Amino acid sequence: MKLIEGKPIAEAVYAECAKSFAELKAAGHTPGLAVVLVGDDPASRAYVGSKERKCRELGMHSVKIEKPATISQEELHEVIESLNADDAIHGILVQLPLPKGLDEDQVILRIDPAKDVDGLHPVNLGKLAMEDPTGFAPCTPSGCQRMLIESGIETTGKNVVIVGRSLLVGKSLALLMMGKGEGANATVTVAHSRTKDLPALTRSADILVAAIGIPKFIGPDHVKEGAVVIDVGINRIDDPSAKNGSRLVGDVDFDAVADQCEAITPVPGGVGRMTIAMLMANTIRACRLKAGL
Ligand code: GUN
Known about the structure:
The chain is 41% helix and 17% strand. It contains 10 helices and 11 strands. Bound molecules: guanine. Guanine (GUN) binds next to strand 4 and helix 6.
């Protein structure tokens, strides 16, 4: 069994970012990312904190906009519009999920597609479906694809089963992997909560992607001998033996399935590492596109 760790692959992405960043700097441009955090969900706050740290490390301009959960839909739209108009900002990310009562789709629709480094605006999702390389693909799916490429895992002609149909991961990853580029040309099936006989379907997968948000959901019965398993889940579960009483686990029961896999990603330290790296790469590309480089 080969462990596919996120760190060295993310480092390769950061090395590319640093090179591109230096070229932009030399031409008088500083990539800028704005992250909008609404409410006080601790997990969202932690994600936003790591995005800010990475921006600083790379020398990027970083803006964090924090708003209370009581913000109105219109006020939130105004925040987006002012970021759209700000020339120092090349990427805008609204941390999801938004607190109850706020309409996420309406917020995303207002982000300038050229600054939508999260790849969630319909223009970018449309470009993803059209395989137009001027768009931005969502960060977690492109991180999964990059892990497969960097690990030398063949995807052409392979059966990929993705468990989970979210726009942020499952649906977008399906579009990426059924496309024609590198790390693609796969035969993709997307399974979800209404799928019949899920274990039989997932056992047909050469590459199995778990993105359902249920701790340790994928067990030995779901995995074919010799399959590659990509675990997108990040779930916090109680663990009285842990220092703070909880720990992170994936959607895959790692200890139970690892031995039967050809390769598997760990949680933490797997796909999660890639999401921020791809966000930085998208932001630098947004700046390059704006600068005409
Ligand atoms: N929440 C969890 N993952 C993501 C992501 O990739 N983008 C945004 N905007 N919110 C998230």
